[in-house]
User: Fold these one by one.
Assistant:
Number 1:
Amino acid sequence: MVVRDKPALKACRDLEEDLVLYYYGEVSESARGNCDAHLKNCEACRASLAEMRSLLPMTAAHDEPAQAFWEDYSREMRRKLDAVAESETWWRRIVGLVAPLPVPALATGAVLLLALTLTLTLTLGKGLWRSSTSAPDDEAFMEVLPMAEQLDFFSNMELLDNLDLLETLTGQGNGTA
Amino acid sequence: MAASPTARIGDEELVASAQKGDRRAFEELVERHKQKAYRIAFDFARDREEAKDLSQEAFLKAFTHISRFDGRSGFYTWFYRILVNVCLDYRRRAKRAPAEEYNETVEHQVDPTHVPANPVAPDQHAIAGQLWRRVGAALELLPAKQRTAFILKNHQGLSIREIAETMETAEGTVKVHLHRAVTALRQSLAEFA
């Protein structure tokens, strides 16, 4: 490996992309033939290809850890798998509680839940609507007032009946005396 | 040394057992593919601990989603996609981390137990160290897709078609990413050519 000061000759612009693929062996047979023919006559493209051949393999990162590393890797991996399996067990337990129930039972439960939700929503909604239009005390008074008036009427009627009865009894008493 | 009883079993059978809840079967899959997985992760992270964590994270994802593996491709092809995605996610996370971390971590890659086959002269060693840092910095500057295409081609030796499948993109797009990555790296590393 040499640290170079001069920049390399630039490859021909229209062959640049093909030259990269040529280096990696990813060109078609016909394109390969074209590249081979061009390279015979073009010093810049030959230099460009030579540069790729010397530079690109050096960019790969190589690491060969010792055996102890791999043993530690396996141990750590088993520990992590244990942790994942443990957390999955909790989920399975929850799912396991629901899963044995038959579909009709689950459907009935869902319908009941929906009905309860609707009932609560409507009841609460109605209460809220009422409270927003009039105060509860006023409303109760308005409902009781006609009833009280009717009660007065019947009381008066009862009093008149009693007076009639008293007059009749008085008249009868005078006649017999 | 006696061979493991699962040594002759194919990946497909191990996956089938793992899907039925056999932990040992999955652990055998890890044993088979851990070194390849680690090397790919190392290509992306260029850091030993990070590479270990990333490859293990990919195995854990494969473990939790093993029921979704439908067997249309090989286990390793399926796992490979998970791994590359984990590595790309790491790239996004790393981008948010302070830039100085890179130089600190790459300095610690020398394995004290590793004896090189061809010892190099001190000046060559210094240049190699300098190149290592410059390559890391140059790769770091590449957009994620260019970097992925380059690593999968240059380091892993995948075909353009395989890269396109892994990255879920067109082959023509992969070629463009690869060309741009190589051009950018050559500009950054011209002095080492």
Number 2:
Amino acid sequence: MLLEIQDIHVHYGKIAALKGITLEVDEGEIVTLIGANGAGKTTTLKTISGLRPLTSGRVRFNGDDISRMPGHKRVLVGIGQSPEGRGIFPGMTVEDNLYMGAYARSGDLSKELAEVYELFPRLAERKTQAGGTMSGGEQQMLAIGRALMARPKVLLLDEPSMGLAPKLVQQIFSIIVEINRRGTTVLLVEQNAQQALQIANRAYVLETGHVVKSAQAHALLDDPEVRAAYLGGGAGGEAAVAAAPAETSVPEAREAPDEE
Amino acid sequence: MLRRSRPFDEGDRYVLDSFLNQFWPATVDGLSLGAIYSLVALGYTMVYGVLRLINFAHSEVFMIGTFAALLTVELTGITSPLGTVPLIAFVLLLALVAGLVSGGTAVALEFVAYRPLRRRGASRLAALISAIGASLFLQQLFALVVIPWMFDRPKEGGRLPVQSADFVEPVNLFSIGPIDIRSDKLIIFVGAILMMVALDMFVNRTKLGRGIRATAQDPETAVLMGVNIDRIVTATFMLGGAMAGVAAALYLMRFEETEYFVGFLLGIKAFTAAVLGGIGNLRGALAGGMVLGLIEMYGSAAFGSEWRDVIAFSVLVLVLMFRPTGILGESLQQARA
């Protein structure tokens, strides 16, 4: 297992946010966490990346216990994150934001930079623009591209579809598939359960700090309880965009229109 | 009431005349004083940008810098005034020593007075109280212990000003029209500007500088990028302290004396300059310091020097009423600088 979360409890003050979450992510997978607001999805990601201290439980990465490792060192072992709300440094240019992604590394970064620009041609066009003046979709691309600059083994994505128009959501999801196809493991937190379940291999359903279900992603798409709670109840499954094969979806991403 | 109806009375004429007569000298004095304010203001603004903390003990970082410079003058045994070129070299030495001592003091403050509070998740208010406490502690420590010991004085002597040897011979280097440019004031102005340009380049062009900006803009995301926040905070205190140390060396050259209380008013003025320029903004500290220095000197020229502080702080209040974010507005969080 690349990433193992073992019975973690996390508190904000006296309030318990995570009440014993256990989950695993294997190398090469896309795993998604779905659930309502306040279920603990973001806290789980923040705990993995070391922003929130554990009350109890363990986080293991690549076989090592990293429960006590400070957050800034976890980037170096291979955990990259695109945070909730994107976390773009507003006063820095696009390129400076990307260099921040590789802050923990040293040496030549031209290869990583070229790769990110290839994946997100839009960012190449906006190199010198201040991050804070970009559209939501562009900021999301920048947040993902920035995380990739550190060459993470696992990429944690917190609500990449938040606030984006459906067409752009589709584009971001096909890029996630492509990133995974190129060898990066993905742990995806989403409210947009429909889309997330379609690209994921496996999924965990979180409710108020607990894992209430875990299964193959396609199985959850057909699960009546999950459908009722997270997929809008109806038979929307076919209407949504299927996870497009990466080969066709990425050129499409490149030519994407400006809109959000 | 009759008086009021006259548009321009004798008193007004006096104020205007005296202002016009002293306009150019006041400009020169204002810029060299403003340069010192600006350098000290950088320390307030950088720490605020990264930690959202007003480091009120920064005035004592400056004070300790003046004593480091003074002690260096004593140790080199200089007793007669230096010509312009040797003076520049000597001031560089003073700035280096005072910069290191003040930078070190600022870092020590962070380790003793602020970091332990942050570790325990204390509120910003607690850190502020700790800052004020550290400021008073250092003042009294110097008055009661350090100054009497360092200058071999009786205990009561600690509160008296300490003169340095007379190592500056101010000469008029040249004149631009009616403006006489004196060597010591020019050294202050040029020295301060060079330091600020260097700091600006450091923050905008180096990796550590990028880390400082990232931490100021979004500390949590900075951690996700692999930024060690503790190291950034240490660097920020070091840089801000070093700037105050350079200011202290320049101050000592200009006034040739210092005392345990020297940082108090100057610190408040520098803090005012930082707020005036837009706190958190490096270039704002420069602008705020210069504006404050000029206002003080123009104000003294017009109304007499006893009004200088009243005028300076009135302007601060007025500016903030109409532009609460200061002259340059944006902060280290949003701006590139």
Number 3:
Amino acid sequence: MALRLGREAAGARPRAETVRWSRRTPVLMILPAVVVLAAITLFPLLFTLRLTVLSWELTTGFPPQFIGVQNFVRVLTQDPRFWNAMANTGVLVAVGVGLQAVIGTGLALELNRLRRGRALVLSLLLIPVMIAPVIAGFQFRMILNDQYGPLNYLLDALTFGRVRGFAWLADPRVALGAVMATDVWQWAPFMTLVVLAGLQSLPGELLEAAEVDGATGLQALRRVTLPLLLPVIVIGVLVRVMDTFKLFDIVYQLTGGGPGNVTETIAYYTYLQGFKFFSLGYTAAMSFVQLVVITIVAQVFLHYQKRVRGGAVA
Amino acid sequence: MRWNARALCAVVAALVLALTAGTGSAPTGPAAAAMQAPKEQHAITWEYPPKFSNVTVNVVGDAGHNLAPYEFWRDHFPKAGITIKIIEVPFEGVYEKEKTEFVAGSGAFDVVTFYPAYIGDFASNGYLEPLDEYMKKQPDSVWNPHQEDVLPPFRELYNKWAGKTYALTIDGDAHMMIYRKDLFANPAEQAAFKARYGRALAPPQTWDDWLRVGAFFTRKKGQQLAGQTLDRDFYGSAEFAKRGFSFAWFVDRWAASGELYFDDTMKPQINTPAAVAALQNFVDSLKNAPPDVRGYGYDELRDALLNGNVAMVVQWTDVPKKGADPSQSKVVGRLGYGRVPGLVIGGKVVHRAMMPVGRVVAVAASSKNKLAAYWVAKHIAYDMSLEDVSTAFTGLDVNRGVHFKHPEAYSDFKTTAEAASYLDRVKEALADGYPEIFIPGAAQYEDALDLHVNKALAGQETPKQALDAVAKEWTAITDRLGRQKQIELWHQALNSYKIAGLVK
Amino acid sequence: MRRRSPARRLVTGLVLLAALVFFLFPVLWMVLTSFKSNPEFFAYPPVFIPKSFALTNYLNAMRLPPDGRGGLQGVRDSLIVSTGSMVISLLAGAPAAYSFARFRTGGENLSFWVLSTRMFPPVASALPLFLVFKSLHLLDTHWALIVANTIFNLPFVIWLLKGFFEDLPAELEEAAVIDGTTIFGAFRRVALPLVAPGLVATALFCFIFTWNEFMFALLLTRSDVRTLTIIVPSLVGGHEILWGQVAAVGVVAIIPNILLALLLQRFLVRGLTLGAVKG
């Protein structure tokens, strides 16, 4: 009940007595953040926007040339590599982030049941998040090594030689999966922490009420807990989706985008265009296409979030 | 709770303070002990310049052992009135870091270390100081880097652009073949090979031999190899098949055909029948390679050999130095070296060895202390170069005549004779040299080539499809960069190739 | 609520045990690797327990040539930059998040714009940022990295906290306001403590995001500032990977993070229930 009021209040104007405050204070509270963000991002954004209509190849000595929408035409219609990278990233987003959400939420729920040692287990689980992707990449290169790595050795030893592990990073069939596994290993704990924080902000009596009503654990989870958690989960997933579009270090360390281009992500390809080829105009156009795609994805998520929020109240 | 927040702040602040205090000034002693300067050979004579009035020279380069020479000889610079400040950039970030600073005109660097494939980019954009005037300064013993002693491919390609010298070579790179001579010398293996193929077992002369010998030595766990039962699988050959430089191992197979990347009009020559056959050979060779060969870069490939896991590889010329070091190698004394396999052309075997990467130093045009910077570059590239290329503490490879004349300096090898034989093979490899694409845009051309070579290796494309795609992409790149200008630059590069004796 | 069947508890235990094995094995591998010596990195069968636990790799990694302060400088710079960006992002972000959550200030467009700044590919903003910092003479300073990382941390803080604030019932703050507190007071004294777990989680991640960042650290620094992520690849020469030292830096690099997590764990898992607060 309390929650419901809270949600309505969130949308409603505060009470009459406070109207005098509500005009100015909220704006003042938002101002620092907006000013800081605008100051840092406005110039890069405008600079990049202007680049999108230029052909500016820094490797040659030529001055930039105006070429209209040609950069966009090239991204959209003439660059299969861009779409391959987008598709790989799409897989990492759909499957990888999906796994992170499922594993993360599952572990958060289990952790929440733990009466003792919860803090310790959580702290331990969080260690992967704390390792820089560059360093994690090196560890996985050793662990996933086909011939000398501990993973394939353990597979072999524990199955008495019946299972032969893959050449995880070198086999075109599984390489993207290996990159994904590394990412999931690193970021599922992030989802655990976010969901756990959400879980602990939930009013306990609501769950108890559900249990008193005779709902089984699973029913309570599905009807009460998950819907209440969804807003937090969605934001966590959205953050991970945005970051997956930036997935670069791990790919660089593990596969260099190969074999072929089966693990080339959009961030890696953009990096090549920007900092290996120094094709400034084209990089800018690619960046804006990505921005549009991510914006659409984000809008879908937020729309969904609003709906589930509404659903939880009703 | 309040206490907690305060305690936290205190701990964090204390940590920051402790670390800041602990690292505020650079401790010099312990670091020096970690790395030992090689013994000075005095094979090259040089003198200090007239003392500079305590100028600081900023040196940028790829972090790690290739910056070690500045540490070895750190006592030299103060004697010239120079303070060295090193800016270390991760191996993979050198080009973008330097380019970004150049483009922005930050003037942050005086001496710049880079991969020579970028010389066209850096020199034609005016980022580098032409060195010809500096090199002529008197007295000779102070300023002359003796470029005439530098091996022609490095002097003409690595160092010059449009006829002027912009850089000095510190690291010369080329491929050579390295194989397990103990296996080739084994009588049982020789007999088995003879029985199976009707010819004598020998290190491969041609790329067809490579496939045959590779297939011969590929054995399963439990089979015999040179009279011993294998406790794990053994492979005939291995390749650099990871994204990045796999194209160089394709060019090794193709270059002997005598073809070049482009014709005179910059029409790509990369999808000729000879090229397709070369790529097919590369693809076929993976059958004799470890299952994870598509993940092999330089170090995995080196380790496969040094761990005793494969019979032969084509590698950079520094690998024998590592192979002679018992802390890195299980095959000490069992490695033979030879020329990269070739193709039979007109009844004769023609060998070509790709020359990827390498390193040069140059003086930034925006430097405020160009003369001092030049002397620092010259000191590393000439005065102390024998010491630098002969020690295992750097990854620098021989690049001038004098480096071949002093095998006794290469103390990793057990005997001077062994070192001399290694140097002879390196000399042969360099004589077979085949260049990278030395024009601006090299990174784009080579990345496109590497991508499709790699797709063929991964089975995503056939060799023909892959190389046709490269040709198409190369044409598009040329058009984007400006066809007319690119053709001019290519002609200039061709000219350099010819002067260097790399093409006829 | 608190009573669970033994079977269910066993399941919980097993699931968490499996998770710990999965998430900690690579960490353990890294710790072990940091003590190994050359022949042990790629031996067959793999070496799990190194022969000796000498600190050679740690000593070498922490005092990188040529100026001999590699690893420790990295720890220092990473700490300063990460802490700086975290503090700024929280100070600016938390009030903004509250304002967005409670008053919809600026409408959906403004809040979405905030989020969208995190979506922009970093490669595209790196060069313009470099130019800005160059003209402000901020290259190779901690400030450059703090500011650049704040681009990504601030939207993260705002959006994550916005979610937590929205889940709070507004009555408590309203009551406080009626009792004469300002809106800011209600935010600081009522709402903020209530979302403490979320706040702490957010702070921790801000810290970690910056700690792990690579591209800006590469481009915006030279030699005065070198974060750990820049130092690690420098252990990989063109010709050699110093596996042991990479792992040693990795171990040293997680220590501050673990310390932080341990310090904050009280907040992270306080088990705050709103019902109890409301009485």
Number 4:
Amino acid sequence: MRTVLVDDDYISVFLTEKILKREGLSEGLCSFQSPEEALRHVQQSIPNEVPDVILLDLNMPVISGWDFLMALRPYEAQLVGRCFIYVLTSSLSPSDTDRVHEFPLVAGLIHKPLDDLQIQTIHAQVAENRN
Amino acid sequence: MSASEQFVDSEQRFRSLFENNSDLLLFQDEDSIILDANAPFLTLLHLEKAEVLGHPLDDFLPENLVSFFRQRLNEAFQGIPVQFTVAVQFKGAEPKVLSITKVPLLVDNAVVGVHMVGRDITELTASNQLIEQQARRLNTLFESITDALILLDREWNITFLNQEAQQLLKVESQLAVGRNFWQMFPAEVGSVFYQEYHEAMATGQTVRFEAYYTTGGLWLEAKCYPSEEGLSVYFSDITYRKDAEAKQERLTADLYRHNQDLQQFTYIVSHNLRAPLANALGLTQLLQTDDLEQAPLLNHLHTSLEQLDSILQDLNTILAVRDKQDVAEAAEPVLLLDVLRQVVDSLQEPLQQCGGEIVLAVPKDLHVHGKRAYLFSIFFNLLSNSIKYRAEERPLRVTITGNLDLNGEVRLNIVDNGSGFDREKAGEDVFKLYKRFHSVPAGRGLGLYLVNAHVEVMGGRIEVHSTPDAGTEFQLLLH
């Protein structure tokens, strides 16, 4: 599973990596603490090495998760159905939950902390899509 | 010309002056006997000359003036001209006001007679009185208006200021009238007053404005009416109103700042505070130990973090409700029975477990203006509480009745036969956060707080009555 993790919080990155590793899904994982670099990576991956999953934090400086999603808008046609974005946030704000519906690339919103069950659900969705 | 001719000439000139004079003229001797009278006098009295000459003036005077005229005549015979004004009605004549001069005729240093010259000033007096009367009326008018008033001439001299103006400007009329306004209030030269007054005077247009009067430390509201004569300025003290306005503005700014703080606080709670907590929760999930001593420590740590997280989630819920003060505007009609049925459906499982029943006696078309999600939350919390705090010794029964009252407001009563609580002891705390009125089963003390918050946001009211071991009744008033 090609996974891109975008999160400026290094402890959160550490946790997510650990859980993916425990579930045996860490192969093909690229973690970015800088959303700019992550964005460049995703743009360059089009069309042949599109990630299966992007785990995207919302609350980041300079480029927020929302900015990241806006920046991917022009690539939506190339990404939809191939790349599933999961918004990964510690925020409890209900407005975030409403807003993810504006982006067709977003497959779901996960409240931190990420756990085994959620990762397995994501993996199952990706696997189903492949078949 | 000879001396005799001169005499005749002067005699003729004198007669001509005497006869043709428009004033009343008499020549009297010491005993007031009229020796000569001119035509205007005779006309006034409607008498012929023969009927007058040889009679004392007394005969033609009203009785109350006889001695007065005698005295004035005597004074004139002392050799001094006498002048006085008198209102007199000669017998058979119209009433007149006369300005009278008595001039003694001196021959060889002896007074041989007195000329009386009476000038008719009746009309003059009348018009003077009219002017005085009007001035008095105007004065009363100016004083009776509650505004302060200053009249200025075109050279900025003060011609009048009423009592109120004297008080407001702290000047006395005697010291102000006749003085130049700007010399009297030099600090106001160049002020708003100065500019506005000049504007009114120059354009001839009425000017209204509010300005701070530096000299007196007052806020004044002024109206200037220019005219040919100058400027009429009406003004009143609006310091009180201005202070109140300023206070209101400060209050609004304060409230705005507090609201900003609260929004900032909400943001911190939902983002900044939650992020490290989520990490800590994730880390404790990853931590595993086989050590029998360490295991309970880890367990307690995880529980503590979860408790902290649930408080944070409560706070976020509360702040989200408080933040949505625009609900009243975004209200939509919601059918109550619809929402109630939905809530009862969602509570089927616990209801069946405890063998309780909920009776809905709400008219099908009864609706309120509000937010469906809030109404759901209100009924869900109230009914959950009824189930949670039911009386073990009897099956739970909740009755919900609703109707539209005479004021067009919707009244809902939710009555249960549960364990109840001591309403009096609960007092004001009943809808407060984290306040609990039952020791078992466990609760967080959030439900009623949220119910009240949701009701208030929709502009409604809620009251609760409860009796221990009998039940609880909630009365809801919605629009």
